[in-house]
Amino acid sequence: MYIIYDDFFTRHNTGSFHPEKPGRVAAIKETLDLKIKNSPLFGRFVKFITPQTAKKSLICAVHKEDYFEKIKSISASGNLRYIEPDTVVSKDTFDCASLAAGACIKGIDCLFKNMEGAQAAGSAMQSPASFFALVRPPGHHAFASAGSGFCIFNNIAIAAKYAEANYGCKKIAIIDFDVHHGNGTQEIFYENKNIFYISLHQYPHYPGSGYWNETGKHKGEGFNLNIPLTAFSGEYDYIEAFTDVILPVLIDYNPGLILASAGFDGHKDDPLSSIMLASSSYYKIMKLILFLSSTTRLRSKGKNPCNIGIVLEGGYDFNSTSQSAVEVIKACIEEESRCSKIFNGQAENTSSDCRPQICVTDIASPAFTRDRQIRTLYRFKELLLSGSSITGAASGKNRNTFNAVKKVFAGSFKIFSVLCIAFLCFLLMFSFTGCRQYDSKMDISYFFKTAPEKSVIDFVYAMENKDADYIYSNFMLESDKRKISREKFTREMSEILSEVESITIEKIIYLGYENQMSKVILDFKIMYSNGKEGKYKKYIYLFEENGKWKIVFNKTFI
Predict the structure, then answer these.
(1) To which H or E segment does residue 408 belong?
(2) For range 423-443, the mean pLDDT
(3) pTM reported for the whole predicted model
(4) Dist CA 435 CA 233 (whole Å)
(5) Tell me, what's the pLDDT at 348?
(6) By three-state DSSP, how is residue 1 classified?
(7) Dist. CA 327–CA 178, nearest whole Å
(8) CA 35 to CA 25: how far, in whole Å?
């Protein structure tokens, strides 16, 4: 793992009483140095890189030129000046901010040069690469034309733009787990579908933005996801937000690069928030981000390395911030160590961490599908939560937020380009992947559904057509078939369906995998032959048997 750092970052002077102090990065560096000295794992896999100042053109790919010149001019005056109530510019601020942006650019170069080196060596599967830009001033509150919230230049936005422009990276996910909403990053990419911004943050809290209904605009609609969390939320809430909302959406998005705005001010000891995370919580958060990276790499058979760049944002208690940052680094280097051993044919030690239970040999298996990723994710969730002392608990309000976000992003993932849809339709005409299994009718929406959702759709159309024999053959578990004969089932099902004129699916959402079953929620409308109409909502439980998703009747229809 590359740590991009320079002692010069301590020279950004914010005054005696400002919470964003030079000691923040110094504390992390000191704790990390001690870890390297005492841990062979850290000593082997941590590599320090010295950054270079970012060129004006790279900073101004995100920021307005007049704002860039304003910061440069104030710094040159040598005076300490507040450019807004929270944000200070002093003698070395411009140089520190330019170096911070340059550190993130250097990190991007390290990731892609590592990838190019692996390709040149003919490696089919690349080891994961990651960097941690240990920088200040922070950046995610910086807008294109103004600094705010302690931030001068938006470091992570500059890194994303640089990766997009210089390495052709067209799908970038920015995951912001700072306790404050990254309003600057959101605004910069609010109309951009190539850069998907995701934020978990305390709400209501500074800066007051980041509600769940802020989902992007124009071409960026659907590519901005906010998870506002109530005060005193804890580890459970964060893990549930990742496993139930964020990662399923990002698995569909399939990013080529993940960037993390790493703020550690959600720690229970931090003075600027009321979130109750522990240092070890950040290890688990990073493991979840690594899950996305690892499974994306496996699913693409190594063609998409999906590497990770981490950029320091907030965290104002020196001890908790430094310990939390080291936990994030530990998670990354454990993954690098694990992959290094596997690629070299060595046995791996599985006892020291709670990483996702995925074997790299799965890369050769076409069975490593999106559905399997989701199922593995839920097993990983159970692993992360088992045996841990959970700080806080998911409140009803957080659960309502998660459900609201799920509804907004239920299409996972919308295709906005008419040309893309036309091309997919063209492919479907030849591959028939958009045909329903039951009646072979073309259905473009069917193409985007998960396997359990497709099974439920087929089940509904079979009911509408009163095809009880098909239902018995294709949706009954073998254990249920032993309890009821085909004749008895088809007779009773036909009687039930005899009064049905039509069934219309209004909404279908895949809710996840638990206890070896998948769960789908179905909103549907039945028009009866007597002219009456009924609207229903049903949770459908399914179990995979012999490669098919079958209905668990005794749980679904109780």
Answers:
(1) helix 396-408
(2) 58
(3) 0.72
(4) 44
(5) 45
(6) coil
(7) 15
(8) 15
Strand, helix or coil for residue 310:
strand
Q: What burial letters (b/e) apply to 252-273, b meaning 16+ CB within 10 Å? A: bbbbbbbbbbbbbbbbbbbebb
Q: Three-class SS string for 430-444?
A: HHCCCECCCCCCECH
Contact between 240 and 200 (Cβ < 8 Å)? no
Could you tell me the two tokens for 402? Answer: 């998660």
Say which range, 207-221, 329-343, 532-546, has the weakest mean pLDDT.
329-343
Cα of 379 vs its chain's centroid, Å: 17
Is the dihedral angle over the CA atoms 19, 148, 402, 374 positive or is it negative? negative
Show the tokens assigned to 512: 């996840």
Phi, psi at 549, each rounded to 5°: -90, 120
Residues in Cβ contact with 453 at an 8 Å cutoff, skipping those fewer than 6 apart: 508, 509, 510, 520
User: CA-to-CA distance for 110 and 172, rounded, in angstroms?
Assistant: 16
Q: In what order do the strands lie in the sheet with 517-528?
A: 500-514, 517-528, 533-545, 548-551
Residue 536's SS3 state is strand
Residue 386 confidence class, pLDDT cut points 50, 70, 90: confident
CA gyration radius, the chain: 26
Dist CA 377 CA 247 (whole Å): 8
pLDDT for residue 100 is more than 80 = yes
Catalytic-role residue among 12, 140, 141, 201: 141
Identify the top-confidence range among 100-104, 393-397, 442-446, 457-461.
Answer: 100-104
> Are 72 and 94 in contact, with CB atoms under 8 Å apart?
yes
What are the contacts of 381-386 at 24+ separation with CB within 8 A? 381/239, 381/240, 381/243, 383/354, 383/356, 383/357, 384/239, 384/284, 384/287, 384/288, 384/354, 385/236, 385/239
* Cα–Cα distance for residue pair 251/412, rounded to 1 Å: 9
Q: Can you tell me the distance from the alpha carbon of 470 to that of 482, in angstroms, rounded to the nearest whole number?
A: 17
Is 218 part of the annotated catalytic residue set? no
φ, ψ for residue 251 (rounded to 5)?
-60, -40
With beta carbons less than 8 A apart as the criterion, state whether 329 and 262 touch: no
Q: Which one is predicted more confidently, 479 or 411?
A: 479
Evaluate whether 143 touches 27 at the Cβ level (below 8 Å): no
Task: Report the pLDDT value the prediction gives residue 538, as an integer from 0 to 100.
Answer: 87
**pLDDT > 60? residue 347:** no
